[in-house]
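Propose amino acids for all 325 sites.
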């Protein structure tokens, strides 16, 4: 059985939907940002907090858990600058409690959701895993701290782990039964689509004077279903003993500017956006694009969905409308 912590969130719920096809799954989620209705009905569900050791100990005693996949975190860069305590408490301290309970119960396999924000401001076109990790905000630092803890736990307690550094997760499940549902929404693609549905009066483009061809920021958008597949490959590599520890980037290897993303949304939906150009948003690097060659060579993963397909799947989901919780 696999424990998915944060399985009611955006990325976690997509992983659960794939994972229940082959494994027994139990989800732990406190529903602070996740939604019970996003969790596949075939998974067991426990509402609780990953910082609560008693809840964790009970979970590990009640279920024969062979691996933990950990998606539960706060993940907004701007908020992390204003409320670092929240980020270090939830993302670092609570994860430590989870790891402590795992070790107590002899559970040795762990898959961790990390982020491109661990790299800070890169000075290369394509970021590989060897690039220095110099995060520029508490969110990125909180994720990097856990990566360092994992390395120490591997040495001391024989923990086996895979760290997955996501670039810009986007899109929705092909069924449109689950998708992105943040409140408040801050991410580019859902904001554009909500605007094109008439739910927002306009789109703000944050900064037009970056050192990029059209002056707007470039990101590497990766379909959430591609992310889910990578997790399953990583899990199988841990369970089979093929891998003891590894860190991988998960991206498409192609960068799109904010303007290009808006153009693509207009093309896919056949609707025209009202755009306002504003100042830069603090903490945004000009360009973040991954090479994911390492996971391709080691586990055979590569992204299958391009930007148009990502947007088309998100559009189907947003058009349906989602009533939370
Ligand atoms: N943007 C706009 N207008 C908006 C929203 C976003 O112009 O209304 C721009 C941002 O400035 C950025 C790009 O669109 O240049 C993408 O922004 P998102 O908020 O969608 O995503 P981020 O790249 O900021 O964040 C993502 C993940 C974070 C992670 C970060 C790493 O969501 O969890 O990448 O830098 F930390």
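Proposal:
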């Amino acid at each position: 059985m696999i424990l998915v912590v944060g399985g009611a969130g955006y990325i976690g719920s997509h992983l659960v939907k794939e994972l229940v096809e082959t494994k027994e799954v139990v989800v732990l989620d406190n529903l602070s940002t996740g939604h019970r209705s996003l969790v596949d009905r075939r998974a067991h569900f426990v509402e609780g907090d990953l910082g609560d050791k008693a809840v964790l100990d009970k979970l590990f005693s009640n279920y024969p858990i062979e691996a933990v996949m950990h998606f539960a975190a706060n993940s907004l860069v701007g908020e992390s600058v204003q409320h670092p305590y929240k980020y270090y408490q939830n993302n670092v301290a609570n994860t430590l409690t989870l790891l402590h309970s795992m070790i107590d119960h002899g559970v040795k396999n762990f898959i961790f959701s990390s982020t491109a924000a661990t790299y800070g401001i890169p000075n290369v076109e394509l970021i590989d895993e060897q690039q220095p990790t110099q995060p520029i905000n508490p969110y990125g630092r909180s994720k990097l701290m856990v990566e360092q803890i994992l390395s120490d736990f591997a040495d001391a307690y024989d923990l086996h782990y895979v760290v997955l550094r996501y670039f810009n997760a986007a899109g929705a499940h092909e069924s449109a039964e689950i998708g992105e549902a943040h409140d408040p929404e801050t991410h580019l693609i859902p904001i554009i689509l909500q605007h094109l549905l008439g739910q927002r009066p306009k789109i703000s483009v944050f900064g037009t004077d970056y050192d990029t061809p059209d002056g707007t920021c470039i990101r590497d958008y990766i379909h959430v279903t591609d992310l889910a597949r990578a997790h399953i490959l990583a899990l199988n590599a841990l369970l089979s003993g093929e891998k003891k520890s590894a860190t991988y980037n998960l991206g498409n290897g192609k960068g799109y500017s904010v303007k290009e993303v808006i153009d693509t949304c207009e093309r896919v939906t056949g609707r025209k956006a009202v755009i306002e150009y504003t100042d830069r948003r603090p903490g945004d690097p000009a360009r973040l694009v991954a090479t994911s060659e390492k996971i391709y060579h080691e586990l055979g993963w590569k992204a299958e969905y391009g930007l148009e397909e990502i947007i088309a799947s998100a559009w189907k989901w947003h058009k349906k409308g989602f009533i939370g919780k």
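The CA atoms of residues 7 and 13 lie 5 Å apart. The domain at 2-170+222-250 is CATH 3.40.50.720 (Rossmann fold).
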